[in-house]
Amino acid sequence: xxxxxxxxxxxxxxxxxxxxxxxxxxxxxxxxxxxxxxxxxxxxxxxxxxxxxxxxxxxxxxxxxxxxxxxxxxxxxxxxxxxxxxxxxxxxxxxxxxxxxxxxxxxxxxxxxxxxxxxxxxxxxxxxxxxxxxxxxxxxxxxxxxxxxxxxxxxxxxxxxxxxxxxxxxxxxxxxxxxxxxxxxxxxxxxxxxxxxxxxxxxxxxxxxxxxxxxxxxxxxxxxxxxxxxxxxxxxxxxxxxxxxxxxxxxxxxxxxxxxxxxxxxxxxxxxxxxxxxxxxxxxxxxxxxxxxxxxxxxxxxxxxxxxxxxxxxxxxxxxxxxxxxxxxxxxxxxxxxxxxxxxxxxxxxxxxxxxxxxxxxxxxxxxxxxxxxxxxxxxxxxxxxxxxxxx
Amino acid sequence: xxxxxxxxxxxxxxxxxxxxxxxxxxxxxxxxxxxxxxxxxxxxxxxxxxxxxxxxxxxxxxxxxxxxxxxxxxxxxxxxxxxxxxxxxxxxxxxxxxxxxxxxxxxxxxxxxxxxxx
Lengths: 392, 118
Description:
Chain A is of the alpha+beta class. By secondary structure, chain B is of the alpha/beta class. Chain B has 5 helices and 5 strands. Chain B has a 5-stranded parallel β-sheet with strand order 2-1-3-4-5, with helices on both faces. In chain B, strand 1, helix 1 and strand 2 form a beta-alpha-beta unit. Classes of the chains: A alpha+beta, B alpha/beta. Chains A and B meet through helix 8, helix 9 and helix 10 of A and helix 1 and helix 5 of B.
């Protein structure tokens, strides 16, 4: 203590070199040889009085640049403004010692994470003569800790992603496999009983049972698609060179069979592209069925194809009162309100059809647009990019 | 001789429903809940004209079953129709692929196609 007191009372400019007798002091030699710790002394008002090589290495100042300056230069200005420097000296003075970890600044202004100890130095009579300050640069340790934390967080996120993916795969398996098997049994049973009965009531009931089972099957398909779109990385298309007719003609024929009283006017010139046949059939089946079910009963549904140099438009049009503006805004939203309101056996569904259709068209880099007004009725227009590769 | 359909399907309800349905339409039916049992019995089935094969099954699955059938010359000529809820990656070389559920009439007409009755 006395030795330190002596150093404080006679502060040298370059401590180890300038001191005569003290240079041989083993304690002095120790302080000057320490490179990993800044060890220096502040006077009672917080001005730097000594400096060691560790302090120069950590903080960047040479002794002649820092001795005599207030130790607040080591702190970020916004921290200084809070009165922290005075507080630390006050604490060290009162408690004998102050320790913390926090941000400090190097001479070049760069911050480092430091462990700081300030110890009060008192003379023989107990009077405060200064403070010993020891600072260790913990930036590496902190960086390592942070890297470890980041790594742990990444690992946790990965585990969570895997868990979710596993759940999705399981969910898709249940939807795709486990729910369809019972429907297959029901269909089978309905088919067998239908074969073996002539009773009109039984046959009517079986028709309804069969229709319900098929509707259930369609809804499962839709939920599967929704899950693929929303959770499982999107819809996968199997693009192949094809003629648009291949997607449209079978659907029109099928719907003419299902709705024999309804007129479907269909014209399609020869046009080809790289598309997914099954998925386009799904889209057109949805759009044309909607037009049949929601359009004016007596008026025909029109399916028209217009070819442009780089795109092809397919317009599905029905006459009848327009879709209310509020509903138009929501029409492509999944599970939209209103879809479940007026359900009859004909139209009951999940309200997912148009949403999935739009997603399918988007996956083809195309657009699905709605136009509905009192003058012209309702048109859904699919715009698809055309092939750049000639077909066989 | 009566035509026989081999049904390989793990779900009992569906398996038995198919048995009833095909028997009611004049076919003999042999069933197995998984591939190994089907494979073990297959060579002895008289008049076997068609295999209806599920893919996802406990025990030997449909893919492995089909692979084994192909390796046995005396079995390899029997048409195999995959009847599965997830038939997108059905093994190459099967005769036909049907996605569950299929209306009974269609399933029956498919069976008739391969097991023409006199």
